[in-house]
Amino acid sequence: MTGVSPVTLDGLTSGFNTFKDLTRNRRFEGMMGFTDDEVSDLLQDARIYSNETHHLIRDWYNGYRFSNGNSEQMYNPAMVLYFCTEYLSQERMPTNLLDTNIVSDYGKIKRVFRLGGEESQHFDMLKRVLSEGTVSTQIVPQFSFERDFTPRDFLSMLFYLGLLTIKGDDFQRSILGIPNLVIEKLYFDFFQALIDARIEQNTDALDVQEVIYDMARTNQPRPFLELVVDTLTQVSNRDLIHFNETGLKMILLCNLHTAQIYTLKSEYESGRGYLDLLLLRQPPIDTPYQFAFELKHLKQNQSAQLKTVAAEGRAQLRRYLKAKGLQAQPNLRAWLVVFVGTEMKLLEEVFETSDSE
């Protein structure tokens, strides 16, 4: 039996308290998902296999792990079958990689964030997961209505709903992270809705998409970043108390997700560092330009450091651009973005230079 979270095992809600929960039993881990080999076989049977296709759906639909240890990551079967069906019906790779049935899980996120009346605390935890990639916790085996809903309960509920998954071990705790790009997009859509609510307006998705499309065509990111500035200036001063580089990056990601023409990589490992934001082509969409952004944020009282911080950012970008992974990307353009408070003080395209320079 599937689709039953441990909350229904409580004797108050149902007779399922006599059942045994096998969710995290390693013997059964592969029962409800597709392995990488099974997906490869499926694509070949459907005559749609290619390395590019396999890599794409691995990023979008793979990543689920239900027990600790070195168990294999599983694919969401519904997502994989949606992709295959769309591919065969259109006779080409689908442009929309999100099944509408999966998008409906957006409502689940909203309801889970309201559990226990700690929405602001849950919101901060989401920012941590999106910015840092992982969070460590003990997964609770059962939820109880007789005690408070704790942060551990909140993270565990996201795990049981497939909105977080196990990435590794941390002593007696599990390291939880976002399983794939589908779930990441759901989170950023939710985050954008929260931002819109705080500034008491709805972002016009069509306007956002159009400036992103123009950026992809022309290698001119200024209109897109000015749109981000407009958003920042509408956020209240109270919300900006803790505003920093992470908050800036999250607002950028929220807006970029609306266009669905790039695969977005946050904190991309390149050389001896981590690039803040990488925008890569998302097949089958052939965008003319790809982008690497290095983001810097200073508070108003740190504005005198602008020149120094800008020099550091240029040096970082040039070092990243020498890494093989980025050198292999065609038409990749690198930009340094420096904010002071809510103002964009510097937007500069950076080019790779030789070691002698």
Structural description of this entry:
By secondary structure, the chain is of the alpha+beta class. The chain has helices spanning 36-45, 51-61, 77-90, 100-103, 106-114, 119-132, 151-160, 181-198, 205-218, 222-234, 245-259, 306-321, 324-327, and strands at 134-137, 165-170, 173-177, 262-270, 273-281, 290-298, 332-340, 343-350. The chain has a five-stranded mixed β-sheet, with helices on both faces. A hairpin with an 8-residue loop joins strand 5 and strand 6 (290-298). The model has no long low-confidence stretch (mean pLDDT 84).
In short:
With 357 residues, the chain is an alpha+beta fold. It is built from 13 helices and eight strands.
Task: Give a topology summary.
Elements: H1 36-45, H2 51-61, H3 77-90, H4 100-103, H5 106-114, H6 119-132, E1 134-137, H7 151-160, E2 165-170, E3 173-177, H8 181-198, H9 205-218, H10 222-234, H11 245-259, E4 262-270, E5 273-281, E6 290-298, H12 306-321, H13 324-327, E7 332-340, E8 343-350
Parallel strand pairs: 6-7
Antiparallel strand pairs: 1-3, 2-3, 4-5, 5-6, 7-8
What labels would you give this structure?
8 strands; alpha+beta; 13 helices; 3-stranded antiparallel β-sheet; single chain
Using only C-alpha atoms, the radius of gyration works out to 22 Å
> If strands are numbered along the chain, what order do they take across the biggest sheet?
4-5-6-7-8
Look at the structure and give the mean pLDDT.
84
Helices, by number, come to: 13
